[in-house]
Amino acid sequence: MEFVSLRSIIYDILNIIRGAKVGDDEPISERQVESWVHQYRALLLKRDLDKHKDPNPAYIQNINNINLVLDSDKNTYRTSIEIPKPVDLNYGSGITFIGDSYGNQIQLVPESRAPWQKYKKFTMGDTLAYINNNYIYIYNAKALSTIYIRGVFEIPTKVIEANGNIPTYDYPYPIPITLLPDLKSLILKTELGIEYTSMSDNVNDANNVQRQE
Description:
Blueprint: E1 4-5, H1 6-19, H2 30-49, E2 61-71, E3 76-79, E4 95-99, E5 107-108, E6 128-132, E7 135-139, E8 146-151, H3 156-162, E9 172-173, H4 180-192, E10 194-196, E11 209-211
Parallel strand pairs: 5-6
Antiparallel strand pairs: 1-9, 2-3, 2-8, 3-7, 4-8, 6-7, 10-11
Helix pairs in contact: 1-2, 2-4
């Protein structure tokens, strides 16, 4: 599967903006473009996933080896770190999988369901997960010490941080290249009033950029 870097996306958009002579008096920063890229990527992915389609593998990121700690207030184990915000979908969370170190899936349920699990005759011993205040709580954690998760997250760079790495613009950015023209078009038209069309997505060609009348 082919990916591009966040740096490439940001620079392509900045080159289009410069070609359209927008923002000469108040230059648009890389950080501003980065924020737009995250925002509109999340919007495009939500639109796609709200159709109840299986997530494109290019959308998904992993957070590995998340330690569990005891939350004394709830007397339940939870993740030692806050989990980056998943994309909110009409039918649930953008988290697609929670697993233990052996690859066994842990079912993600609404928080209100967990306290009733102990009254279920056949499944009272099941291990469940729920989200509260950006932490994942594990009901019936048993001997678990770590978990890992997969999902579609709003800000991909925060997932890199959650894995203990320093995010840079050079990591592969989790969006399929087929969505890049739509991403750029949304940003340019919505934020800057630039009409962007592309036959080959040659973003350095200033002929493909026109100021909106």
